[in-house]
UniProtKB/TrEMBL annotation:
PANTHER family attached to this UniProt entry: ALDEHYDE REDUCTASE, OXIDOREDUCTASE, ALDO/KETO REDUCTASE FAMILY PROTEIN
Name of protein: Aldo/keto reductase
Domain NADP-dependent oxidoreductase: 13-270
GO molecular function, one term: oxidoreductase activity
Family matches, as Pfam families: Aldo_ket_red
Length: 371
């Protein structure tokens, strides 16, 4: 079972490297362990490795470089450049930095990590076109692009092909099924699904969890393996799964080695159908809960945590393309308070919406129900 990226074939479950941690906190032992886990995946046939200059400030690329030493010809490397590196010279310099950290002279797939409405897409695509001509990158991809943004980027790129789009896709966030996924399947464009396991968040109802458990037991697999299999059974989709151990990597690989029945595929899809609600931003309570989260519009505008993309830039992009990807909420048990909901996901997107449209325009949201 393989998926196509351009003219290359890759394993349908890739190896992700988010959460590697900054280089300042790195240790030789920790890097060796992370590299060994990635190398184990390569030995199992998981030849797609996804990274970015953003992850750990380049630390993830250094770890990947150690993992692929001596086996570069067996690995398909995908990396991405930051939203503040969209200018022509910045793209060129970012690529050179990634090549140095990875210890290779070319990257298979180089991706625009996030759209940046402040830089003309023509300038960014021209830089990527030059890098392809120089042989430093083989394919061009995008990430977090809507269908409209992809079509515009492809129009600018001309006769060459943008071979992939990396987007969030899991049982909770399925908005790409409406427009992007049918388009990508019809046009042979790879969909790279990040957060296929929803970053381990337990947002399932008891009924949903029970269904997944029963299906998993029927195949003698784990719930996570069933979810990964469901994700990659959607045509051109490649799931990017993180792993902190060889055991988990082996389980990820095994998820591509069994088949879900049509009935089970449909049962899962039906059980996880999501209705988009529209709520007033002022009715939503924002809680930090140990994460770098902004509590006011002013804080979000200043972006002192250097979050990518910044709420302000994302706001410009949402306004320009009328993007309606939902935030995630739970109902507030404190009925006496001013907030009807509590924000549990998409904090940057929440503040971006408020910056773009103010407090009186309802924001699309998934409201997590319990049973």
């Amino acid at each position: 079972m393989f998926r196509c990226i351009g003219n290359d074939c890759v394993f349908p479950i890739g190896q992700g490297t988010t959460g590697t941690g900054p280089l300042a906190n790195a240790s030789d032992e920790g890097d060796r362990e992370r590299a060994a886990v990635l190398r184990h995946g390569v030995d199992l046939g998981m030849n797609y490795i996804d990274t970015a200059e953003l992850y750990g400030g380049g630390h993830a690329e250094i770890v990947v470089g150690k993992a692929i030493r001596g086996v570069r010809d067996r690995v398909f490397i995908a990396s991405k450049f930051n939203p503040d590196h969209h200018r022509f010279s910045d793209v060129i310099n970012a690529l050179d930095g990634s090549l140095k950290r990875l210890g290779t002279d070319f990257i298979d797939l180089y991706q625009i990590h996030w759209p940046n409405p402040r830089v003309p897409i023509q300038e960014t695509m021209e830089a990527l076109r030059v890098l392809v001509a120089q042989g430093k990158i083989r394919y061009i991809g995008v990430s977090n692009f809507t269908l409209q943004e992809y079509v515009e980027a492809q129009r600018v790129f001309g006769s060459g092909k943008i071979v992939s789009n990396q987007v969030e896709y899991n049982l909770v966030e399925r908005s790409i099924e409406e427009a992007w996924l049918p388009y990508s399947q019809a046009n042979q464009i790879a969909t790279l699904a990040y957060s296929p396991l929803d970053q381990g968040r337990s947002g399932f109802t008891r009924t949903q969890q029970q269904l997944l458990q029963e299906i998993a037991e029927g195949y003698d697999k784990t719930v996570f393996q069933v979810i990964l299999r469901w994700i990659v059974d959607h045509g051109s989709v490649i799931a990017i799964a993180k792993s902190a151990s060889m055991h988990h990597t082996s389980q990820n690989a095994e998820a591509a080695q069994f088949d879900l029945s049509t009935d089970d595929m449909e049962s899962i899809a039906k059980a996880f159908q999501r209705k988009t609600d529209w709520v007033l931003p002022a009715e939503v309570q924002v809680k930090a809960e140990g994460k770098p989260v902004y509590g006011t519009v002013e804080e979000a505008m200043k972006n002192r945590f250097d979050l990518f993309p910044s709420p302000e830039i994302l706001a410009e992009n949402i306004a320009k393309w009328k993007i309606q990807k939902p935030i995630r909420l739970i109902r507030n048990p404190d009925h006496a308070g001013p907030f009807r909901y509590i924000l549990v996901g998409e904090h940057i997107r929440y503040w971006a919406w408020v910056i773009a449209f103010g407090w009186e325009i309802p924001i699309p949201a998934y409201i997590q129900e319990v049973d």
